[in-house]
C-alpha cells in the first residue's frame, strides 16, 4: 500500500490539473493565457512564460529519467532546462502544452507503479531522496505558477 506516495501523486495532479487550494492550477492558468503573451519577455524577467513551462517539463523529464536509474542525467545546459527558441515560441505553444501534459501523464503513470519505499530511495546520482524531489516538484510548480501569473498580469 502506498499511502504517502498516493498523497504526493494527488498533490502533483491537483497543482497540475485543478482544485488547488491556492487558486488556479498550472493548466487552468495556461489555458486562460492569450497565446500572444507566451513568448514575450517582460523588462524585469529573464524568462518568458513558454520558457517557464518548458522548465516544468524539463523537471518532469528529470524525474522520469531518475526513476529509470539514469544516474548521469542532468539539466545542465540552458536548452535542457529552459528550451530552445523554437520550442518556446508562440508558434509552438500548443505543442509545448501537449508535451507538458504528456510528461505529466508519464510521470504519474510511473509513480503509480511504485510504493512508499520509493520515497526513501536516494535519487540516482544525487544527494537527496525521491521524497524530497517529488515534494519539491510540487513546491517548484507552485512557485513557477506564481511567476507565470506575474508575467501575464
From TrEMBL:
Pfam families: DinB_2
Highest taxon in the source lineage: Bacteria
InterPro entries in the cross-refs: DinB-like (IPR024775), DinB/YfiT-like (IPR034660)
Domain DinB-like: 26-148
Name under which the protein is recorded: DinB-like domain-containing protein
Source organism of this protein record: Arcticibacterium luteifluviistationis
Amino acid at each position: 500500500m502506498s499511502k504517502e506516495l498516493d498523497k504526493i501523486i494527488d498533490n502533483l495532479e491537483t497543482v497540475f490539473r485543478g482544485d488547488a487550494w491556492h487558486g488556479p492550477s498550472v493548466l487552468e492558468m495556461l489555458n486562460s493565457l492569450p497565446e500572444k503573451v507566451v513568448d514575450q519577455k517582460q523588462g524585469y524577467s529573464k524568462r518568458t512564460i513558454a520558457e517557464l513551462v518548458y522548465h516544468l517539463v524539463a523537471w518532469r523529464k528529470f524525474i522520469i529519467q531518475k526513476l529509470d536509474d539514469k544516474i548521469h542525467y542532468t539539466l545542465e545546459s540552458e536548452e535542457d532546462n529552459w528550451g530552445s527558441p523554437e520550442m518556446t515560441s508562440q508558434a509552438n505553444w500548443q505543442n509545448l502544452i501537449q508535451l507538458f501534459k504528456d510528461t505529466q501523464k508519464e510521470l504519474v503513470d510511473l509513480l503509480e507503479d511504485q510504493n512508499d519505499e520509493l520515497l526513501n530511495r536516494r535519487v540516482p546520482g544525487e544527494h537527496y531522496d525521491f521524497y524530497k524531489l517529488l515534494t519539491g516538484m510540487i513546491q517548484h510548480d507552485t512557485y513557477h505558477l506564481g511567476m507565470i501569473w506575474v508575467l501575464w498580469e
